[in-house]
Q: What sequence folds into this?
């Protein structure tokens, strides 16, 4: 009885294994057109939604099962569908022949030509498109342009060309208002200076000052102001954070001694 059950399970396993092999099989194929391999053809299994692309020799490999439908697609060739049969699964190989895609254009009729190229060329209709009102000569390449009044500034301020207040005389072509720009630069520096304590405390954390530097929390702003003579604000806004930390460590010792 045990031998019969064992034989039954073995037969069942072999049958299931054979069925699974028939269910999913990796097949190889070659795509050609007029006996020439076709590369870069997209092979898409419409059943499993998986696909691949043919190589330079027109070869490919894809996992398929019985009754799967393969779609072969390429810009230069007509699309083709192929249904997987038992013979394909047994052979594990398929050959696909694609037909070139021919794009048929509509007829174009040309009238008024004699067939003589020299004669027809002289009868070209006049160009009615508007011509540009400026011309360039080779001598123009040697001309030197005047100095750019705004060339010393990294970023051109568009407001200098549009806002009358930004110009001395309030008219286009007036000289650059250096005084007003200096005032705006000073305002930017003051704003950066005010934001520095907020940003550095947020970036390094309060614990860095209280535990590492022994600076009481209520005196952090005072300590940062004390460090300004070391150009710490300049270093911070130039992304030299390591230099900023080094300055804070060095000055914390002097600051601690002074406050004693």
A:
């Amino acid at each position: 009885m045990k031998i019969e059950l064992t034989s039954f399970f073995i037969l069942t396993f072999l049958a299931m294994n054979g069925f699974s092999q028939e269910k999913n099989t990796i097949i190889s194929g070659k795509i050609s057109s007029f006996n020439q391999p076709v590369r870069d053809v997209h092979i898409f299994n419409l059943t499993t939604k998986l696909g691949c692309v043919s190589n330079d020799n027109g070869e490919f490999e894809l996992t398929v099962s019985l009754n799967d439908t393969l779609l072969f697609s390429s810009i230069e060739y007509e699309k083709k569908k192929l249904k997987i049969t038992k013979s394909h699964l047994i052979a594990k190989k398929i050959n696909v022949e694609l037909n070139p895609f021919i794009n048929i254009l509509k007829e174009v009729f040309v009238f008024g030509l004699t067939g003589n190229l020299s004669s027809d060329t002289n009868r070209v209709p006049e160009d009615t498109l508007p011509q540009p009102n400026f011309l360039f000569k080779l001598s123009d390449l040697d001309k030197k342009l005047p100095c750019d009044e705004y060339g010393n500034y990294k970023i051109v301020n568009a407001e200098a060309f549009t806002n009358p207040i930004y110009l001395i005389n309030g008219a286009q072509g007036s000289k650059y208002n250096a005084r007003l720009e200096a005032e705006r630069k000073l305002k930017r520096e003051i704003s950066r200076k005010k934001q520095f304590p907020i940003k550095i405390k947020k970036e390094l954390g309060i614990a860095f000052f209280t535990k590492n530097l022994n600076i009481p929390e209520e005196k952090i702003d005072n300590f940062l102001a004390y460090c300004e003579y070391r150009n710490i604000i300049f270093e911070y806004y130039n992304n030299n954070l390591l230099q900023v930390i080094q300055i804070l460590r060095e000055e914390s010792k002097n600051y601690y001694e002074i406050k004693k």
